[in-house]
């Protein structure tokens, strides 16, 4: 699934993982508007920054066209997803988010992490496969 999706991707917006995280980001932005005024410049800002960082890092990595840089951007996106989950936990701890709502967000973050890990696995396999083919092709005797 991931390989087919990436191979046909013309830009980052074609990636399922980016689209998934975009929807999560949009929901986080809507949720943050519900937070009390005193949390607008603290928790809401941090949540929005983390959610935006996920999609921005995926876009940046896609545009790098280099395996190591793309993977590094994916790692940063993964870190931002985990950061977002922590901010959501803070919202629960401070009584701004019901545990049932948190569970829904947690499942969505976990799904985003799975998609992201799958994308990273695909990138590693493509790099490893490309590296092996080059090594094998240079070591083959030439038949004339």
Features:
elongated; de novo design (two linked rop proteins); disordered N terminus; mainly alpha; 6 helices; 144 residues
List the secondary-structure elements in sequence, H or E: HHHHHH
Low-confidence stretches: 1-5, 131-144
**What's the overall geometry?**
elongated
Helical proportion, percent range: over 70%
Q: CATH fold name, please?
A: de novo design (two linked rop proteins)
What's the helix count?
Answer: 6
Whole-number mean pLDDT: 86
Give the class from helix and strand content and strand pairing. mainly alpha
Instruction: Output the CATH class name.
Output: Mainly Alpha
Record field, number of beta strands? 0
Instruction: Quote the distance from N terminus to C terminus.
Output: 41 Å
Largest sheet: none
CATH superfamily placement:
23S rRNA-intervening sequence
CATH architectural name: Up-down Bundle
Radius of gyration, taken over Cα atoms and rounded to an integer in Å: 19 Å
Strand content: under 5%
Number of domains: 1
């Amino acid at each position: 699934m991931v390989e087919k999706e990436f191979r046909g991707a013309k830009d980052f917006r074609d990636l399922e993982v980016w689209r998934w995280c975009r929807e999560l980001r949009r929901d986080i932005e809507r949720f943050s508007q519900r937070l009390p005024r005193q949390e607008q410049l603290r928790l809401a800002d941090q949540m929005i920054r983390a959610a935006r960082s996920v999609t921005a890092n995926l876009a940046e990595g896609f545009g790098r066209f280099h395996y190591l840089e793309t993977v590094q951007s994916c790692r940063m996106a993964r870190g931002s997803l985990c950061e977002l989950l922590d901010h959501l936990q803070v919202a629960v701890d401070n009584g701004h988010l019901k545990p049932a709502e948190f569970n829904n967000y947690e499942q969505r973050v976990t799904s985003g992490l799975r998609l992201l890990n799958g994308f990273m696995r695909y990138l590693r396999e493509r790099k490893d496969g490309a590296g092996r083919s080059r090594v094998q092709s240079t070591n083959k005797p030439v038949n004339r």
